[in-house]
């Protein structure tokens, strides 16, 4: 029988956390909905427009007053016109997927009736953790420390991205540089750390759920014991992955185009970045390795014994001609012919020990690879890059 699920169990990754409540209080988020578009536009303009207006007013947008004008700093524009809106728009996907997939543990029967209250307690605890101010206090403290402790002169490596805002040879910054350093970049960092915090929340949530006595079905056609639906969860982080990759690639592109950086020398770093980002985004699904591996080992023994017994009975009845053999196992509709019983066993043998599928991997890998492919297209034809990517993925 299909179970009904309380709305309180529809856990959301973003709704009602501290930044959400503050933005609702100031009117950025309406009473109904998430206010995604208005917030994406607002924060993009807040972080990008003041520095562009200042750069135009001081003749720093195009080559002229400075050797390295703002227009050439692709990373600045990608960070605030692309990454910031994508961080916010991604909240909609994360909200929709988390409120849809988490209750499915109940409706699918994975959580047994006896543990329904334990599941509800887990959701309540993670919701309380999501709503606590402390994580956001830590995030703000980290951003303040990073901003204050880092040098702010345009001549430093830390401030290279704002050398367009230098007022003199000493590297002191004008208004645009200060706005970048103390408003725009901290807001970007806050949104970035917020997504990392959400990844931690998902990891803790799924880790606790994995400790329940889940009713895993080793013969389930999804190939993951009935947990295959979780393979959609990485889609919640696809825009996050694309945004991070776009910022990194655009900053590197500035060095390649205007400072002679060698793209080939960046291959190792970009490969490590790709692998690390994929692992981070898929890490929450790895929490089910233990339960799935145990279910698979147990099922191989149980179904192996069942199928072995069934095979012996078939041999005695139809090969040896022992007509007195009339065991109920031979007439079990659930097993059917010998070919069907072997199919069950093969399904168990091919069962994955994680809910990660090829589509889960592609949901992170492809958004990450697109900006990297654009970066390499500076020196290598995009057709060749795409063919290499396809060969890697297929």
Note down, in words, how this protein is organized.
The chain has 394 residues and is mainly alpha-helical. It has two domains: 1-215, no CATH class; 216-394, no CATH class. The protein has helices at 18-25, 36-57, 74-101, 104-107, 116-131, 134-149, 175-210, 238-259, 267-282, 289-319, 338-349, 358-376, 382-393. 34% of the residues are buried. Mean pLDDT is 85; it is low at 153-158.
Describe how the helices and strands are arranged:
Blueprint lengths: L17 H8 L10 H22 L16 H28 L2 H4 L8 H16 L2 H16 L25 H36 L27 H22 L7 H16 L6 H31 L18 H12 L8 H19 L5 H12 L1
Helix pairs in contact: 2-3, 2-7, 3-7, 3-8, 5-7, 6-7, 8-12, 9-12, 10-11, 12-13
Q: Provide a count of the helices.
A: 13
User: What portion of residues belong to β-strands?
Assistant: under 5%
Secondary structure: helix percent:
55-70%
Which blocks of ≥5 consecutive residues have pLDDT under 50?
A: 153-158
């Amino acid at each position: 029988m299909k179970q009904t699920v309380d709305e309180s169990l529809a856990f959301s990754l973003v709704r009602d956390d501290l930044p959400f409540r503050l933005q609702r209080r100031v009117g950025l988020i309406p009473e109904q909905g998430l206010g995604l578009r208005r917030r994406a536009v607002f924060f993009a303009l807040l972080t990008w427009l003041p520095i562009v207006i200042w750069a135009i007013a001081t003749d720093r947008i195009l080559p002229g007053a400075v050797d390295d004008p703002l227009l050439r700093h692709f990373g600045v524009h990608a960070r605030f016109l692309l990454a910031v809106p994508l961080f916010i728009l991604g909240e909609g996907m994360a909200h929709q997927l988390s409120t849809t997939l988490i209750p499915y543990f109940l409706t699918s029967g994975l959580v047994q009736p006896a543990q329904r209250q334990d599941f509800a307690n887990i959701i309540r605890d993670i919701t309380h953790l999501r709503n606590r101010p402390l994580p956001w206090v830590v995030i703000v403290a980290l951003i303040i420390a990073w901003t204050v402790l880092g040098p702010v002169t345009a001549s430093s490596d830390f401030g290279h991205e704002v050398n367009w805002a230098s007022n003199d040879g000493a590297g002191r910054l004008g208004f645009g540089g200060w706005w970048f350093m103390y408003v725009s970049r901290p807001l970007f960092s806050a949104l970035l750390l917020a997504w990392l915090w959400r990844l931690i929340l998902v990891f803790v949530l799924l880790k606790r759920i994995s400790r329940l006595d889940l009713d895993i079905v080793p013969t389930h056609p999804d190939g993951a014991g009935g947990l295959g639906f979780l393979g959609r969860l990485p889609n919640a982080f696809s825009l996050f992955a694309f945004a991070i990759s776009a910022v990194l690639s655009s900053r590197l592109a500035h060095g390649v185009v205007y400072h002679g950086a060698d793209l080939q020398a960046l291959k190792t770093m970009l490969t490590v970045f790709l692998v690390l980002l994929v692992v981070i985004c898929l890490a929450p699904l790895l929490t089910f390795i233990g339960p799935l591996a145990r279910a698979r080992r147990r099922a191989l023994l149980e179904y192996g014994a069942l199928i072995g017994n069934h095979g012996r009975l078939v041999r005695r009845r139809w090969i040896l001609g022992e007509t007195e053999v009339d065991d109920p196992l031979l007439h079990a509709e659930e097993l059917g012919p010998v070919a069907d019983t072997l199919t069950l066993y093969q399904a168990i043998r091919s069962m994955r020990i994680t809910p990660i599928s090829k589509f889960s991997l592609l949901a992170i890998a492809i958004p990450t690879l697109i900006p990297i492919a654009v970066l390499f297209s500076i020196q290598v034809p995009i057709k060749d890059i795409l063919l290499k990517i396809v060969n890697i993925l297929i």
